Amino acid sequence: MALLNDQFEFTRPQALTLTAGLLQLAFGWFDVFGLDPNYHVVQIGVGALGVAMAWRHDLARMYGILLLLSFGMLAFSLNDLTTESFLEVRTALIGLVITLARPAKRAQN
């Protein structure tokens, strides 16, 4: 666990959630893939939610489950192969990694 001070511990799921949230914000803000402008709004919203939910372990896990369920169902409901569908599968896999990531064991001093 990354200790920021004696009272605050940051677990792996929290770090993954914060990283995923910041990357979603960056991809939403900058037009990296040439996506539909409405999809940028979704990415910014998902990124802001990730940054906000990264500060508690249980909320970080919930964020992973939300990503997995919402973007997984959205990816399976589409019939065509587009850049948006690729990004939806990627986001669902990120949610799976966040959900299954184990918190680090406490370091022995």
TrEMBL record:
The chain crosses the membrane at residues 62-79. Keywords: Membrane, Transmembrane, Transmembrane helix. The keyword Transmembrane applies. It comes from the Bacteria. This is Holin. It comes from Lentzea sokolovensis.
